[in-house]
Amino acid sequence: MQLRYSFRVYPTAGQRAALARAFGCARVVYNDALRAREEARAAGLRFVTSAELSRRLTAVKKTPERAWLGEVSAVVLQQSLRDLDAAYRNFFDGLKGKRPRTGAPRFKSRKDTRQAVRFTANARWSITPGGKLSLPKIGDLAVRWSRALPSVPSTVTVVKDSAGRYFASFVVETEPEILPEVEPVVGLDLGLGHFAVLSDGTKIDSPRFLRRAEKKLRKAQRDLSRKEKGSRNREKARREVARAHARVADARREFHHQLSTRLIRDNQAVAVETLSVKGLARTRMAKSVHDAGWSTFVAMLEYKAVRYGRRFVRVGRFEPTSQVCSHCGVKDGPKPLEVRAWTCGGCGAVLDRDVNAAVNVAKAAGLAVTACGAQVRRAPVPAPRSETGTHPKRPALPVREQAGVPGL
Fold first, then answer.
1. Which of 26, 39, 209, 388 could form a disulfide bond with 80, CB atoms 3.0-4.6 angstroms apart?
2. Radius of gyration (C-alpha) of the chain in whole angstroms
3. Is 207 in contact with 192 (CB distance < 8 Å)?
4. Which residue would you say has higher pLDDT here, 363 or 392?
5. Which is nearest to 190 in space by CA: 262, 265, 254, 273?
6. Which of 32, 200, 273, 291 does the annotation list as catalytic?
7. Which of 213, 287, 288 is nearest to 250 (CA)?
8. Among this protein's residues, is 352 annotated catalytic?
9. Is 387's pLDDT higher than 70?
10. pTM, whole model, 2 decimals?
């Protein structure tokens, strides 16, 4: 399977200028190719193929108006054409229903705060013995290696994000690392009060990274709004806002990685209910929904399950996990969100809504779990007339909670 490994790079002033030149040339080639295809479509001509665009690029580099395209690696320009092909392919696949719909390809702007260029093996880039990333017509970039690459990478993408940071993203081929089999299986109920509730009764608190950083973000955004448009101070303020958001995104990503790795390592199978994130993002809970980052977390669970030989199951969103008693299977119907605990009308058990839903998610996925962890307890009911005595009160099952993830 293919994986991406990203590392922070620190270019010098001259290397930053060379990267800016590469970003600009890639953007111009992308826009020229997109314009050629749009003009052909408007004129009723056939679709301009990638081979034709490549021939036009080779010819235009010899003209005085576009001679400066030769100052960067030719691979960067060809990969820009591949990016345009991918944009068209995703657009047409969305129209055919093969993937979620995306908009038609759009022109890139030099004011875009995120820029990227890609180098394949044909560009003859390399990693020097000293641990630097050597790129053609750019130089040797200093890289902060946080871990070793598992194999020789096939491509590297240099990215400049909105906060002005530079990253090198390597694509490598890796073999699955099958972990030893374990007994536990788990179902997850994702939410906002708790980020995740497991079928064994464990509750993981939601870190709410964006909510905790709102005060600093407000101040940074207020400072940005007071700067004159087009001034250098405004660009500095914009970068500070981007850095504040980047810190939030980095913390959220780290939390997702730690939690997903722990769940995959400790369980043989993981089941998650499919959520309509787009629908929830149109409600008044939109900020909290985006702050949780459920889609990214579930995607991490899915690819890590494949990598480590675990089973990952998605349960349909219309499964009545919050309406069915995990103890006896009686369906009591829908319940408003403020109902966090309910009493089963069939067996009289008092169930925690979230834990009960997590158990039902695991059962719907075909995992052999029991309701013993669902915080089930008997509710007081009238004693039958045949009974002549009373039973002592049974203590309630302890509530097992976990505040966050160890190590954060």
1. 26
2. 27
3. no
4. 363
5. 273
6. 273
7. 213
8. no
9. no
10. 0.82
